[in-house]
UniProtKB/TrEMBL annotation:
Residues 5-68, 88-154 form the PRC-barrel domain. It comes from Dethiobacter alkaliphilus AHT 1. The lineage of its organism: Bacteria, Bacillati, Bacillota, Dethiobacteria, Dethiobacterales. InterPro entries: PRC-brl_dom, PRC_barrel-like_sf. This is PRC-barrel domain-containing protein.
Length: 158
């Protein structure tokens, strides 16, 4: 298992050529928030370009780099798509219970490296609450609706 923040900024390297394609910027989830399906890598230079790679393109994920099988990736649209399917960004989104209570903000995603299955989300309720109580990790099963602005989670799945 791995938290997404552990991989932020890692170089993305094409395994066959050894060429660095950019730095990992964010992980993208499927529409239900159940699996990591892609990631965005950002190149360097005057006009850095963002490319979307499928999770299946990953050959290995170490502590210092991510090796991929494909050099190109897809241009990052907004919202990014992978193989014609929409993806969802969740980091930084507010989490609201179905009863209307704010639970916090998604700070991190815990996922299984082998499959991409989301194993939990680390929430922040603010600096003071994080220091006093620690950050909450929500684990499946979760009935989640990923909206444009907020994530809505049914109360009984908390």
């Amino acid at each position: 298992m791995r938290f997404s923040r552990e991989t932020a900024g890692l170089p993305v390297i094409h395994a066959a050529s050894g060429r660095e394609l950019g730095k990992l910027r964010e992980w993208l989830l499927d529409e239900k928030g159940a699996s990591v399906v892609a990631f965005v890598a950002e190149g360097s230079g005057w006009l850095p370009h963002r490319r979307v790679f499928s999770y299946r393109d990953i050959l290995s994920m170490g502590s210092d780099a991510i090796l991929v099988s494909r050099e190109g990736g897809n241009p990052a649209g907004d919202p990014p798509q992978i193989e014609g399917h929409p993806t969802r960004r969740v980091l930084g989104m507010r989490v609201i219970s179905y009863g209307g209570s704010e639970l916090g903000v998604v700070e991190d995603i815990l996922f299984e490296e082998e499959t991409g299955r989301v194993a939990g989300w680390r929430l922040s309720a603010g600096l003071i609450d994080d220091i006093l109580q620690g950050r909450q990790v929500m684990e499946p099963p979760m009935d989640v609706n990923i909206g444009e602005d907020v994530l809505i989670i049914r109360d009984e799945t908390r």
